[in-house]
């Protein structure tokens, strides 16, 4: 736990999020500034700054969950594609320094952005998280 880390605060229940899924090692919640509706972040429960500070085991867990979340997005939102991005270091565009992976629904013809400046509307995030969470827990973890 790093006191000044927003993702640690979310994991500790001290800051709010729109949760989608949880495992022993990970939390998945909606990005507060979604690039597209349904933009998810898979976050390690333990605080690691980035890939260089993490362990292969933790990264493997995030990778494992990414398949479940990709299936969840495609099945629930019928998106044409799913972009998976993981940024390490400010030079790579990382802005929150707690290891995480973006899983972003994509539609044909959309511009490709990882980050958005527009905060998602709370009611829309809440409804989206409820849909995705229900779908994620309905799938097998090896889907
Ligand atoms: P990075 O640039 O580090 O790969 O991505 C960090 C992501 O975290 C960004 O897409 C940003 O929108 C998102 N983010 C920043 N602050 C918060 C927050 O307080 N809650 C949630 N859910 N997402 C956040
Ligand atoms: Zn943290």
Provide tags for this entry:
five-stranded antiparallel sheet, binds zinc ion, alpha+beta, HIT-like_sf, 3 helices, globular, binds guanosine-5'-monophosphate, HIT family, subunit A, about 140 residues
Tell me what the structure shows:
The protein is α+β, with helices and mostly antiparallel strands and 143 residues long. The chain has a single domain, classed as HIT family, subunit A (2-Layer Sandwich), CATH 3.30.428.10. 31% of the residues lie in helices and 18% in strands. It contains three helices and five strands, in the order αβββαββα. A five-stranded antiparallel beta sheet has the order 1-2-3-5-4. A hairpin with a 3-residue loop joins strand 1 and strand 2. Helix 2 packs across helix 3. The radius of gyration is 14 Å and the shape is globular. It starts with 5 loop residues before the first helix and ends in a 5-residue tail after the last helix. The model has no long low-confidence stretch (mean pLDDT 95). Zinc ion binds next to helix 1. Guanosine-5'-monophosphate binds next to strand 2. GO terms for molecular function: catalytic activity. Pfam families: HIT (PF01230). It comes from Pseudohalioglobus lutimaris.
Q: Span from first to last CA? A: 31 Å
Over all CA atoms, what is the radius of gyration?
14 Å
How are the strands ordered across the major sheet? 1-2-3-5-4
The whole-number mean of residue pLDDT values reads: 95
User: Which distinct ligands sit in these coordinates?
Assistant: guanosine-5'-monophosphate, zinc ion
Shape: globular
- Overall number of domains: 1
User: What structural class results from the helix and strand content?
Assistant: alpha+beta
Number of E strands: 5
As a percent range, the share of strand residues is: 15-25%
Give the CATH architecture. 2-Layer Sandwich
Q: So, the CATH homologous superfamily?
A: HIT-like
CATH topology: HIT family, subunit A
Percent of residues in helices comes to: 25-40%
Instruction: Report the total helices.
Output: 3
Q: Uncertain regions: pLDDT < 50 for 5+ in a row?
A: none
Order of helices and strands: HEEEHEEH
